[in-house]
Amino acid sequence: MCSKTKNSEALKVVVRCRPINRKEEGGGYDRIVAMDVKLGQVTIRNPRVNPGELPKTFTFDAVYDAGSKQTDLYDETVRPLIDSVLQGFNGTIIAYGQTGTGKTYTMQGFWAESDKKGVIPNSFDHIFTHISRSQNQQYLVRASYLEIYQEEIRDLLCKDQNKKLELKENPESGVYIKDLSSFVTKNVKEIEHVMNLGNQARSVACTNMNEHSSRSHTIFVITIECSELGVDGQEHIRVGKLNLVDLAGSERQSKTGVNGDRPKEASKINLSLSALGNVISALVDGRSTHIPYRDSKLTRLLQDSLGGNAKTIMVATLGPASHHYEETLSTLRFANRAKNIKNKPKINEDPKDTLLREFQEEIARLKAQLEKRGMLSKKRRRNSRRKKSVDGETIPDTETEEENDDNFIEKNIRSYLKEQAERLQQEKAAIQEDHSLLEEEKMKLIEEKERMMEDLTKEQKATEMLAVKFQAMESKLLIGGKNIIDHTNEQQKMLEIKRQEIAEQKRREREILQQMLVRDEETVELRGTYTSLQQEVEMKTKKLKKLYAKLQAVKGEIQDHHDEYVRVRQDLEQAQNEQTRELKYKYLIIENFIPPEEKNKIMNRLYYDAEEDQWKFQPLVLPGK
Ligand code: ADP
Ligand code: MG
Q1: Is residue 533 part of a domain?
Q2: Are residues 367 and 300 part of one domain?
Q3: Interior angle at CA 232, CA 230 and CA 238, nearest 5
Q4: Kind of pairing between the strands at 62-64 and 56-59
Q5: How far is the CA of 107 from the centre of ligand 1 (A)?
Q6: Spans of the chain below 50 pLDDT
Q7: Do strands 9-10 and 342-343 pair parallel, antiparallel, or not at all (unpaired)?
Q8: Which domain holds residue 612?
Q9: What's the pLDDT tens digit per position in 388-421?
């Protein structure tokens, strides 16, 4: 078993560059991004060549070039994170980058083509395959899907798409979304269905999907609860939550909307995205005592993932062509900063309110009721004891046995009813035959029997309902080899293992190469003795050149930072101007069209709720109360 706590662990940051597209090729744009996959490095050169300006190189945990496959990224980078979530860690994968660089391709990909499936569908397969191979564990998997658009949270799985959800916080479970719907899913098909529903809801609700998706953030949440008998003989529940985040495009919003009109948003600034940048800066600054999580919905929701107790991966996506030099560089800088975030991942063991515990209790209650009605066989009871055995020796029940078992309840209900009905029928007949009874008495008795028959039918209906509910709930608690079966054959399994080993090997090689590079530089600087003056001059000249290049790079960096700062400031100023204009407009209406006494009454009743970031009305106090 894994240790409960681990010391701090850096955010994993990988970069992926999509292939050049036809438009870019036709436009004659150069490729300005080069990748050293073995070393995990990206180099970007400024297309407007500036004499003396060197290409900029960044190092990441891994880089994926245009030729990389979806499974490369999954096996090397994502798989270990999902394994951790299955152990009870919280995990987050964030896709960050300019619109059109492959965030959605990376997260979702094309569902129909197996080699183009992205992180999300691959994680579905991974999770349910893991569960089907598990032993002596019970799993409950559920999914939610939400979107943040213009700082409002929308539940993509809720029928009422206009409902705005609120963020809440409690000391036990941290930040959560009130009333967010979630669906318990038994297999890949069901969870895929949930995802499709959400995607459909998203595309139906908006007129311009491209613009909408470039400005909204989506989060698909999978919660995996696992119950297992511990060495202490007690049952323990671990809960892992996985956030799959497809962020809004990181580009600065254009000054006008698609049709040339002013965008509806009050500001060009995507509050959640700029808050994300500020949180990351504050976290890696080292001097900041305040991390501004509360500045946006996104940062509040991802608080655990950024400097908290989750394991987090950021996938920064790039385009290769020269026309987006500034945006691409800015994405690389952002990713480079995020590398320095430290999290303290920890397994969530036995949290207070788990759905799995609720399910277990409800199932036990239903089972007791069915047993009381004589509807559960000894056979089933023996099965459930077997389920709980710890020695791992028991052979998992087969699917057919499970079916038989379920049929058994139905058969039991039917034969019970038949028996009882026959008995009543006989009794009725006996009454008819009984000549010692008066006609009136006979009628009364027969009526009574008929009433009993009716009751019996009602009771049977109720029992059937109970049985249906019991079976439905029980089927949702997944038990490897029992109600979730692994259908991969040995050959496929071997292939899988080999693929994972290769991925692991590649990862380790890269780590070693990166460490060697750092050490090389250190040794050059440490070596202080020279055999001749000539050699000393040579070495020192070399060193000087290297340092000079570094100096130039840092100077360039400072300039770029400055430029970016100026840009952001201009954006903020513009946002401020727009808000001031909006304010003046509202003032005009209030001052000219609302009677002053009404205005005063309203203003006296208003108060600010900091928790919900909203003005609210104090309840009216009626006179005489
Ligand atoms: P984003 O979500 O960042 O706006 P998309 O995922 O929609 O970008 O990608 C834009 C286009 O580029 C899509 O047509 C997508 O299929 C294609 N694309 C992106 N990344 C890749 C890749 N790694 N390989 C092949 N095609 C890609
Ligand atoms: Mg997208």
Answers
A1: no
A2: no
A3: 35
A4: unpaired
A5: 10
A6: 1-5, 255-266, 378-403
A7: antiparallel
A8: 544-625
A9: 333 434 333 333 444 455 566 777 777 777 888 8
